[in-house]
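sry for the spam today, last one i promise. struct tokens for design, 235 residues
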């Protein structure tokens, strides 16, 4: 699954990226300021989480949160603010704007993970079904579900490869049909966030570069589910 970290300080950005990776999110999008993050959100698939510093040039964390919460396309983004201990007024403002949570830096890794998990405790049901729940709903074994994940990823990668050979996605045969089929696959596998993003892709246009970014985001999500499933199988 894709998550984004936004911080103008390179060391802090590395720390946030490391935090995300410790939580199992290997596809971490990094941005140096709020403006760069906003420009990404305007045309690319929505990550499941934005972890953002408060004080940055060009666009602050609060300004980015304001823009996100009034834009229908991206207002559902889980937004965790990274603050200093002196930013109490900022935190109060962020709460009024609808921040999902906040962590204080310099942060303790375990405490920060716990804070972010608090956000996911209520939001995860809107992002993705847990693999064991999917297996139960489909009445299949966990190993069979792993095979389904692999087969779905192969379909996504095939379309990515097709897309690489043309600069005009309209030349691909029945692109809307392929997106609809992929959306059904997402719903079957409990990938709710991916299904919504594919619907958004159809609404905003399946341009060549846009299509590839959405497909790569789906692959990242399936890989995350495979990781969760592997942990269940080992445990």
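last one done:
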């Amino acid at each position: 699954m894709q998550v984004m970290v936004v911080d103008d300080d390179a060391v802090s950005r590395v720390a946030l990226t490391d935090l995300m990776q410790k939580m199992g999110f290997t596809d971490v999008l990094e941005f140096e300021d709020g403006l760069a993050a906003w420009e990404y959100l305007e045309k690319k698939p929505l990550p499941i989480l934005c972890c953002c510093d408060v004080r940055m040039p060009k666009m602050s964390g609060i300004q980015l949160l304001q823009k996100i919460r009034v834009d229908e396309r991206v207002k559902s983004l889980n937004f965790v603010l990274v603050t200093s201990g002196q930013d109490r007024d900022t935190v109060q403002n962020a709460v009024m704007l609808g921040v999902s949570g906040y962590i204080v830096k310099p942060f303790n890794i375990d405490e920060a993970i716990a804070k972010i998990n608090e956000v996911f405790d209520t939001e995860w049901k809107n992002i993705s079904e847990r693999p064991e729940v999917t297996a139960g709903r489909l009445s299949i074994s966990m190993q069979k579900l792993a095979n389904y994940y692999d087969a779905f990823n192969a379909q996504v990668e095939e379309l990515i490869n097709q897309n690489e050979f043309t600069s005009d996605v309209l030349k691909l045969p029945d692109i809307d049909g392929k997106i609809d089929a992929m959306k059904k696959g997402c719903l079957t596998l409990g990938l709710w966030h991916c299904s919504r993003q594919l619907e958004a892709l159809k609404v905003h246009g399946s341009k060549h570069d846009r299509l590839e970014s959405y497909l790569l985001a789906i692959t990242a999500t399936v890989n995350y589910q495979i990781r969760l499933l592997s942990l269940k199988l080992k445990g």
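The chain has ten helices and five strands. ok im logging off now
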